[in-house]
Design a protein that fits this description.
18 helices; alpha/beta; Arc Repressor Mutant, subunit A; three-stranded antiparallel β-sheet; Rossmann fold; about 375 residues; nine-stranded mixed β-sheet; 3 domains; elongated
Length: about 375
């Protein structure tokens, strides 16, 4: 039996770590996108050799003058060791096309990002991911439908992908977190520049065991408007399909839908009031051939995801706390008023309200009007 060669192993690890610096370096060069970087790697064999190549070699392979100029300037000004140390100090993982944990679905899209910055963790379950996107100015109808659709998908073991923006995105992420599901947030900024700022706590919850935050932008990159359209191709790229809840006709959500279509992935749209500006986007998508949905079941059926794990379904149905068990013991299919439920359960009103909210998200309880609640199953 061959003995383990520790020195060879350490040399290999050092080589991989050194390569990381050069992937990072190319990411910071304006004008070097995925197509040019792929051509450089093909030409020179690896990113380190490509980074140190002679200028004349860049020109001979057909690299345009702007890219050559920017690359030359970056090689002179960037301290790659310092930049790599900055990423490591922030506790951020750097993935590139050749790392094992770079998402296969994302690598398959036409313009995949050469590198990803990641906080949190991916999981095998993330292969069953669906994007939920929409307007920042969500209506009450859109808010409720986002919660309902997200909750049903999470209960079916689906990972929720969105952009951590205000409105529909935040509701989808938050619902997934509250239900103990998985969610991936794709940022249009560096991972140290969470936007909007009020979502910092949500971002922390996501990376604390509920999923991951990812970005193709280096630390310190601010959430500028030009960053968000490219970001949307990653949202659709990670997903089996894209659901548009509410959106204006010029919304970023429709850009995500167009990317999904280019990537040959289904687009689902929730119909809305034809007089509502935030329903103009999904209604237009439906006219253009997007699949009309009224519930998560439509998406699950279309993607053949309806056969969920029975064990997972049972686990989601079980009470997660003594408070949930106490309320479920006093709930039936006959409506009961909140005040009566508080009195019968013998629990503080605030605790009853928060527990009912969780049970609603889990699909176990439904409010039927006038502060009356019933069992949903």
């Amino acid at each position: 039996m061959a003995l383990f060669d520790l020195s060879a192993f350490l040399a290999m690890v050092e080589c991989l770590m050194r390569q990381m610096r050069y992937w990072l370096g190319f990411n910071m060069v304006p004008g070097i996108g995925s197509a040019k970087l792929a051509a450089l790697v093909r030409q020179f064999g690896d990113v380190e050799t490509a980074w140190h190549a002679d200028i004349a070699e860049y020109e001979r392979m057909g690299l345009d003058k702007r890219a050559v100029k920017n690359l030359t300037a970056a090689r002179q000004s960037l301290d790659l060791d310092q930049q790599w140390a900055r990423v490591q100090k922030a506790g951020i993982d750097l993935l590139h096309w050749d790392t094992a944990d770079y998402p296969a679905a994302l690598k398959a899209i036409p313009v995949s990002p050469p590198i990803l910055f990641k906080q949190g963790a991916f999981a095998p379950a993330d292969q069953r991911a669906i994007a939920i996107v929409g307007t920042r100015r969500v209506s009450n109808y859109g808010r409720q439908m986002t919660r309902d659709i997200t909750a049903a998908l999470v209960r079916s073991g689906v990972t929720i992908v969105s952009g951590l923006a205000r409105g529909v995105d935040s509701i989808a992420h938050q619902t997934a977190v509250e239900l103990g599901g998985r969610t991936i947030g794709v940022l249009g900024s560096g991972l140290d520049c969470i936007y909007p700022p009020e979502n910092r706590q949500l971002a922390a919850q996501i990376i604390d065991g509920r999923g991951a935050l990812i970005s193709e932008y280096m630390l310190g990159v601010q959430p500028e408007a030009k960053n968000f359209p490219p970001r949307n191709r990653i949202i659709s790229g990670l997903s089996l399909g894209v659901i548009v809840i509410e959106a204006g006709q010029k919304s970023g959500a429709l850009i995500t839908a167009r990317f999904a279509d280019d990537q040959h992935k289904p687009v689902y749209a929730l119909p809305g009031n034809v007089t509502s500006l935030v329903s103009a986007g999904p209604n237009h998508l439906i006219k253009q051939g997007a699949k009309l949905i009224t519930s998560a079941a439509d998406v699950l059926d279309d993607l053949n995801l309806e056969r969920i794990s029975q064990q997972q379904a049972v686990q989601m149905a079980l009470p997660d706390s003594a408070e949930e068990a106490a309320l479920l013991a006093h709930l039936t299919h006959e409506p009961i008023h909140l005040d009566d439920l508080i009195r019968q359960a013998g629990l503080p009103p605030a605790l009853v309200s928060s527990t009912l909210t969780m049970l609603e998200l889990k699909g176990a309880v439904q409010q039927v009007g006038g502060m009356h609640y019933v069992l949903r199953r």
